[in-house]
């Protein structure tokens, strides 16, 4: 199987679907997708918790362990790491590595603010020291929390790469000039979030992006499709989507 790092090619980006439960991941593996990520919003919502809440740590770990046996590479969204103690976060990443997880995502967003650069860089460095083989995707929320200058994202991305990150993730960044500036300013692959109505997948590829994530979109689309199905049955209309059969789904299960 191709390594996770090898899938991150500038100009030929990895399209990474984000899942929140086993069935969707199994369907993606069956369809031949090489890798899958998780979505903190989907995992938290499925457990009845706030997005990235510390209490969602257990659900995140349980999902990771259920996905690891699948014939697909697995990267786990750890939000802020579920702890302010870098050693505890590093121990969590080590536990996931032992379960077969190949990548993790750690963000510098702390509610409506950003962690100080030195604090987040120290966290990343601790994780890198503890689990040297893990693909470490460092997310900065400079553009997710606002529309600050791309220079802010560049500064953080460089610091996180120097701390050991294998890839930098700037959700919300989409203007071609800004994307190009970031790609040219850092020495590691760049990960962006697909935003409907903004740059297309092929456009992001042409700008040198190496990974395009879906984030919580699949979870939100699933909610919309389920609600639309209920409405269609009530109104006597055709189903909005053709679902897989019961047998199709059970065939994906252990």
TrEMBL record:
SUPFAM superfamilies: Phosphoenolpyruvate/pyruvate domain. This is 2-methylisocitrate lyase-like PEP mutase family enzyme. InterPro entries: ICL/PEPM, Pyrv/PenolPyrv_kinase-like_dom, Pyrv_kinase-like_dom_sf. It holds the Pfam family PEP_mutase. PANTHER family: CARBOXYPHOSPHONOENOLPYRUVATE PHOSPHONOMUTASE-LIKE PROTEIN (AFU_ORTHOLOGUE AFUA_5G07230), PHOSPHOENOLPYRUVATE CARBOXYLASE. One of its GO terms (molecular function) is catalytic activity.
């Amino acid at each position: 199987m191709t390594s996770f790092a090898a899938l991150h090619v500038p100009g030929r980006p990895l399209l990474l679907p984000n899942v929140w439960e086993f069935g969707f991941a199994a369907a993606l593996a069956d369809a031949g997708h090489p890798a899958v990520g998780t979505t903190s919003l989907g995992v938290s919502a499925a457990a009845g918790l706030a997005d990235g809440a510390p209490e969602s740590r257990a659900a995140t770990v349980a999902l990771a362990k259920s996905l690891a046996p699948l014939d697909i590479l697995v990267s786990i969204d750890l939000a802020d790491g579920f702890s302010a103690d870098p050693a505890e976060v590093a121990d969590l990443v080590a536990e996931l590595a032992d379960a077969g997880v190949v990548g993790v995502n750690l963000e510098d967003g702390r509610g409506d603010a950003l962690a100080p650069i030195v604090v987040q860089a120290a966290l990343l460095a601790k994780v890198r020291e503890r689990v040297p083989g893990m693909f470490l995707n460092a997310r900065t929320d400079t553009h997710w929390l606002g529309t600050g200058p791309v220079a802010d994202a560049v500064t953080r991305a460089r610091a996180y790469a120097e701390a050991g990150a294998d890839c930098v993730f700037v959700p919300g960044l989409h203007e071609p000039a800004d994307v190009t500036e970031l790609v040219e300013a850092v020495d590691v692959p760049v990960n962006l979030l697909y935003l409907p109505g903004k740059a297309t997948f092929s456009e992001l590829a042409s700008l040198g992006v190496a990974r395009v994530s879906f984030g919580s979109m699949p979870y939100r689309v699933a909610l919309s499709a389920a609600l639309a199905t209920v409405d269609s049955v009530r109104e006597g209309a055709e189903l909005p989507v053709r679902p897989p059969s019961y047998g199709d789904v059970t065939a994906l299960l252990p």
